[in-house]
Amino acid sequence: MVLMNASKMRPVETSALTPALSSRRGGSTHSSVEFSRRLVRHSFMETYVGSYASVGQSAVVLVLFVASLAPPPVCGQKTNDPAHAVRLQSKESVRLPLIRADSEPFPGDTAAKDFVVRLPEHVSFQAGCELRLDLYPSLEILPRLCTITASINGKRLSGATVESKNLKNINALRIRVRFPVPEESLIRDWNRISVRFVLRKLAADAGNTQEPGMWTIRRSDSYLTIVYQRSAVFPELVRFPDSIAEEKLLHPSDSRTPTLTLLVPTQRRDVHLRACAVIAARLGQLGYLSMEDCRVASADNWPATNSAGNVIAVGRRDELGFMAWPGNVADRLAVLGAGKGLIAEFIDDALGKKRRWLLVAGADDTGLEKAVLTLGNA
Question: Quick check: pTM over 0.85?
Answer without folding.
Answer: no
